[in-house]
Amino acid sequence: MSIVLPGENVPAQHVNLKLGPGLLQSTTSTSSDASRPSIIATRAGTLHHSANGAKWWVESNSRRYVPAAQESVVGVVTHRAGEGYRVDIGTAHPASLDALAFEGASRRNKPNLKVGSLVYARVSLAHKDMEPELECFDAQTRKAEGFGELKGGFVVRCSLKMSRDLLDPSHFLLPLLGGRFPLEVAVGMNGRVWISAKEVKQTIAIARCIGEVDTDGGGMGIEGVKKLLDSLDV
Question: Which residue intervals define the domain Exosome complex exonuclease Rrp40 N-terminal in the entry (predicted)?
């Protein structure tokens, strides 16, 4: 793990290399006039890679979400557009979601989302010169795998870093809350978290805990969260 700055070369190499947020592949000419691909950082942050070195990305606690392929997001339908929808995912431009980009969708059988509907989707295309594209199924299985319309519940906004933390299986918060009461959570990498619980006070407790644990909100630890939950009687 190391700190990188925009324009800095990154030693990312793998036969099945996949670049995540903050990295870009470019072509650099060498002294022998040959060209070779090089990986450069497009933003400042901490360089990370998967255990096998196949996926590399830069982590930074930026305020605006920059979409990257394969990332999950929570979006709001803003209007219909032909055979699809425009979805606000917190980026500079709205994302497009085809009406057929759902499990089992066909011309005769497709979801009928309304303006204001919430969706949990996967970014299928992300390019700086094109609007992002979304899909509501897993790319490999073609099954929903949790993606699709989110009905009921409540959306909490948090920092992008907090979103990544909640998606980390080793993070303490969601397992701790799940041990107290049943809940459903859909975490978007765009700093939006959809939460649903049986009781209103439980939903409020989840929202409060996410806000308190977020480094932008105080960075509360596990013992502090336990005391907060006790005080909220959940």
Answer: 17-64
